[in-house]
Amino acid sequence: MFVIMLWLFIVCFVQPSTSEIRYTETRQSFYQIAGIFENNTLTQRLAFNESIRYANLGKAELQSMSDAQGGKVCSNTTMQPIAIFGPQNSVTDNIIRDQCYVSNIPHIQANLQLADPDMELNPVEATDEESTEDQGLKFKKISINFYPPAEDILYAYAMLLKYYKWKNFAVLYEDDLGLLRIQKILSEYTEDYPLTIRRLDPNADNHNIFKDLKKFNEYRVIIDCDVDRVVQYLTEAREVNMVNHYEHYILITMDASVVAEELRQFQSNITWLSITEYDKLQNSQHFLTPRVGRWTSETSVVYPPVTDIKTSALLMDDIANHVLKALQKVEMVESIENRTMSDICGPESEPWEFGALLQDEILKTKTTGVTGNIEFNELGQRVNYTLYVNEIYVSTLDTIGTWDSTARGEIIEDRPESENYDKKKNVKHFYIISKKAKPYFYDKIKCAEDDPDCVEEKADENYEGFSVDLVKEIFDTLRKHNFNFTYSFLPKTYTDYGKYRPEEKKWDGLIGDLLDKSADLAVCDLTITEERKKVVDFSVPFMSLGISILYIKEKEVEPAMFSFLNPYTFDVWIHTATAFCVVSIILFVCSRISPADWENPQPCDKDPEELENIWNFKNCTWLAMGSIMCQGCDILPKAIGTRWVCSMWWFFAVIVCQTYIAQLSASMTEALENEPITKVEDLSTQTKVLYGAIDGGSTLGFFKNSKDKMFNKMYENMVQNSAVLVKTNKEGVKRVIKGNGKYAFFMESTSIEYELKRNCDLKKVGEELDSKDYGIAMPANSPFRKYINRAILELKEFMVLDKIKRKWWEEKNVIQPCEVEEDKNDVEGDLEMKNLKGAFVVLIVGLAISMVITAFEFMNEVRNIVVREQVSHKEVFIKELKSSLNFFQLQKPVIRNPSRAPSVASSGSEKKNNRNNAIENLLEFEKVQQ
User: Fold this and answer.
1) Residue 175 contacts by C-beta under 8 Å, 6 or more apart in sequence?
2) What does the record say about its membrane topology (predicted)?
């Protein structure tokens, strides 16, 4: 250790005056201040030397001696200091403080010291005998520390974590004191977040530590170490790709400014606190600039920047100025130049009578130095000061905020408002990755030279699609705001968006490359999920969507013309027709045999010579037909046998008719029953139609993480039958088409909209199952996220995103626009003309046959009249046709041939008259009987 004794030189001017004589009395006072330093603190010792000498305002006498043991300072009997500074070692520091208390000499410190839990919080005061009787002051057993209290600094670091909203982060430290400081910070911040804690070895290789941080995706790191080893550790981190735009380091040291220029070369994000303002120290006009050259070497002629000097050395100038000001105040009250003791720790020495007075003045004095406002409380702790938040953002160093020790609140943000602030950070080339899938990103289609209608995309030389246009618009927008960002698409082909591999403990696909820092942005149909947000950052959404079902349209099959025959098979129809014929024949035979069916044709003739039977074969078939048609008949049998035949036939007809109606109803609604799904619930309750999604995609994750039991069951079904899972949307669409109604695919609604515009055989089934968004992914803690967000929000505001989507969904590559004609009068379950077309055909054919039969009967009657009356065919045909078609006439004349013999005519008339006379006689007879 070095023990330095410095003489303070005080010059006093006395200027009494009279009316005639003026004179000036000058008195010089010399005082000793001892400094105790470690062997490796040359800069601090030289700064103390130069600062005390400079503060004397005159030529001072300097005496110094070295002592390997700081505790042996008492062996120097020539030392009579008014104050002692140091040492930095906590053990010897306590020894010196105790001796200063015995000798009533103020003890001064300038280093970061954690509170000793074994020490009393309140200083022990001297007894009345040890106090200064004249002043009534008591000397306090304290150290006056010009360095801010460790508790305050660590609390400020806790507020810094709160300002950055850190949750998951790693902690690196290199000694036990560093671990104590970290514990203090975390206790002030929170205990809820998981931490990764590792110990650094300054004499060993630490690459594995940073590899582990990279493996666990720890991109926010706190490092507690000596400032001389900060660059060493960050260099090791950079060698494993853990120092770039996306990592953020917080340094638990107040001296990081001395290596600030080296830290800027890492092109990362680094933050630390300091009690000095970096910009002021960097100013070439700073008042310490011409002096710090003597702080680095006793023979130095080089003037280093003030930013290269540690805080402990800068405090030497504040100590000298503050003690000098306090000493001047004491000199105005008492002359303390003459000491009353021979040494500071002799066995018979007495406490210095002015020690309490000087100590009290040092505590009460307020000064302003290179470290800002200097003020103390009664415990000798520095108060009412400001800590500055220094941030290296990629390569730009700025003071972005402050922390006030008096308020002990949160960090007060105070970022530069200069227009050039962002311009200093705008140089960056972005490597962009994407997953090939139409319409988002695919290989550019070159136009043929002989195709004048082809319009080639110009957004990128090799690729085209929605994502390509989106990236172009984002970077064009940023250029308008003076960001000179450039970009290029990496040609790597991706099959997965990215999922976590537990066996490998890493992500693959797009997310994996972002975590490896192989790319800066992932732009495609990448869904923002909670699982992905834990490892990467996402921009604000550029598209909203939901999960829906892609399914094939049911191809409507035209029913057969005679589909009404479908309820029965051909065999049933043949057997039914055969039964009809057999029953008609049996009824005819039975009615001919049965006597009851033979009737008297003349009811008035009680003893008829002939009986009449109306059941000819025609009437039998008519009865059978009316029965099976459920229409009945105007004639019925009377015999028991024939009635039994009819009863059995009616029973058979009821069964056949009713089963036909029921089967026909089922046949008509068969098309409705064949439509298997109209919503997701239909899929979950059936087994005929398989359903799937992209393996490892967010859609499958929705079913996995859903709290709905139905969705969980569907997820289990898909996982158990892995054949239903596909790698891409394109593969899923192909399976839906080839499945022909046996496969349904869960897909994002925006992708379904795109497919429906280009394939009229597909349809969207049901409502959207959820609501989610697409976003641009980037490595965690990306400093460019806010710029990307700003550009996307601006594109949304000016409807540019809608224009891009309309271009790629509705205008580009539309092969066959689908025109769907909807029947507004269509009611579920109704039957259309195509279902009853066969019945109409049968009716028309039957009517045509009836017309043919009627025409045959008409022509046969014409022939009979021609034969009977011996007239021409033409005359009969015309007269009969006119009479038949005269719908207003209910009677028609009988055609007679006037040239025929009267006998023939009269014989017929006579017979008719005789019959009429017989009827009239019968009626008269009945009247007489009554």
Assistant:
1) none
2) Multi-pass membrane protein
